[in-house]
Specification:
CATH topology of the largest domain: Cytidine Deaminase, domain 2
Helix content: 40-55%
Structural class: alpha+beta
CATH class of the largest domain: Alpha Beta
Order of helices and strands: HHHHHHHEEHEHEEH
Largest sheet: 5 strands, mixed
Strand order of the largest sheet: 2-1-3-4-5
Number of domains: 2
Strand content: 15-25%
Shape: elongated
Length: about 230
């Protein structure tokens, strides 16, 4: 019988360390390795995992990277790139289900973590609206604007129309700043005020507008901007 490749023993040791010590005991590239074991079963994936971290910076940033950028890394083909995006989608879905149907104002930390996981490392700006019922439970979370690295077009009338379609009585606005700096721009402030005013005419409350940067999250309400 042929001898098993040397990396098989490494895989067994890494799996055991994850099992006994948990994910915090592993470096980002080692977490990537664990997943790549299944996606690339007949190759030493440690160098590939390290190249991914070198290129994108972290485990989370690797998962958030566009497929076309992932496939630029040596050893990552279209299938493996898609596999990595599936992890990202699963993590976002898990976070969404954690907050869906719960009173958002009493689960604010969970909401922030969900928004961070969904948007923190997106390469382009996206504008999300979280729609709440009369008990402030999340009933829907939708991306209503996608744009460039510094702007996602959003129209107040479309936000309010969608709220009416969903019978929402309150909303929370959220968008990301791919530049990393979550400081609101004047256009962010102006657009938020337009949505607040449009909502007032039909009894829809805007609870907050949050901006997600690379390392921080800011709240319009906390900043006194609404």
């Amino acid at each position: 019988m042929a001898e098993k490749p040397h990396y098989h023993q490494h895989r067994d040791r890494l799996r055991e360390r994850f099992k006994t010590a948990g994910p915090d005991a592993l470096a980002d590239y080692e977490l990537l390795e664990l997943y790549l074991f299944n996606s690339i079963p007949r190759q030493d994936v440690k160098p590939i995992a390290k190249r991914l971290i070198d290129r994108f910076g972290s485990f989370a940033e690797t998962l958030a990277a566009p497929i076309e950028h992932l496939t630029e890394v040596k050893g990552i083909g279209p299938k493996t790139a898609l596999d990595l995006k599936i992890i990202k989608a699963a993590a976002t879905k898990l976070g969404q289900e954690t907050v869906m149907g719960t009173p958002i104002l009493s689960s604010w930390t969970a909401l922030m973590e969900y928004c961070r996981s969904a948007m923190q490392f997106e390469a382009k700006e996206q504008f999300r609206v979280l729609f709440l019922d009369k008990k402030n439970r999340l009933i829907a979370d939708e991306v209503l604007g996608r744009g460039t690295v510094d702007r996602a077009p959003v129209y107040p009338r479309e936000v309010i129309k969608r709220a009416l379609d969903l019978s929402a009585t309150a909303i929370i606005l959220a968008h990301n700043h791919p530049s990393g700096d979550p400081t609101p721009s004047q256009s962010d402030i102006d657009m938020t005020q337009k949505i607040i005013e449009a909502g007032k005419t039909i009894g829809i409350i805007v609870h907050d507008h949050i901006i997600i940067g690379r390392n921080d999250i800011v709240s319009f309400k906390t900043l006194g901007l609404m």
